[in-house]
Specification:
Radius of gyration: 16 Å
Helix content: 25-40%
CATH architecture: 3-Layer(aba) Sandwich
Distance between the termini: 27 Å
Structural class: alpha/beta
Oligomer: single chain
Number of domains: 1
Number of helices: 6
CATH superfamily: Alpha/Beta hydrolase fold, catalytic domain
Shape: globular
Strand order of the largest sheet: 1-3-2-4-5-6-7
Strand content: 15-25%
Number of strands: 7
């Protein structure tokens, strides 16, 4: 396997949460690190990895566009296999990483799906939805979404067909990074605390 895994949290325990990054930021971005460190402190084992284009960007220092979808999905399959198979992992991630995880969840019986800022459609293009497979997902799912996210706001998502096994939790005033404005009276750290608390409850509900 060529993908490098970055682990946080205690050894052992089930399931392992595996997170992939979004299109433009690496696995150790402030957002990914903030969520991961909080969940690790709550006793969860978390693994992060980078898709090939992001790993090359790290090695070469040159900005690259995301790999084609088949390559992204194959990376997910390799990581899941390396960690012992679908039954051992909850998969998810930030934006694009979470969307690719949701496509994998549609093809294999992972323990659960955790999406952080799901890109339901491109900003400003609400007709170009990325939701068809979400209606038929047969695994427990949690989507954490900001109420100001231009990739999918509450009124839009209310009209989508989602699996009855999928829950959407709204981060008040959050943008695509789930970050609220200062005028909301909350900072990003408080939003990350909420994200971790809700995600931790979801993970504990899936533990053996």
């Amino acid at each position: 396997m060529t993908e490098t895994l970055l682990f946080d949290g205690p050894d052992g325990g089930s399931p392992i949460l595996v997170l992939a990054h979004g299109a433009g930021a690496p696995m150790d971005s402030p957002f990914m690190t903030g969520v991961t460190e909080r969940l690790a402190a709550m006793g969860h084992r978390v693994a992060r990895f980078e898709f090939p284009y992001m790993a090359r960007r790290r090695a070469e220092g040159t900005r690259r566009p995301p790999d084609r979808q088949p390559i992204l999905l194959d990376s997910w399959r390799k990581v899941i296999g390396h960690l012992g198979g679908a039954e051992n992992v909850v998969i998810g991630g930030k934006s694009m990483g979470g969307r690719m995880a949701s496509l994998i969840a549609a093809e294999m019986p992972v323990r659960g799906l955790l999406c952080l800022g799901y890109p339901f459609h491109p900003p400003g293009k609400p007709a170009k939805t990325r939701t068809e497979h979400l209606a038929a997902l047969d695994v427990p799912g949690l989507i954490l979404q900001g109420t100001r996210d231009p990739f999918g706001r509450p009124d839009e998502i209310a009209a989508y067909r989602l699996s009855d096994r999928t829950t959407v939790h709204w981060i008040e005033d959050g943008d695509h990074d789930l970050k609220p404005r200062k005028s909301s009276g909350r900072d990003h750290a408080a939003a990350l605390d909420e994200i971790a608390e809700v995600a931790s409850g979801f993970l504990r509900s899936l533990a053996l």
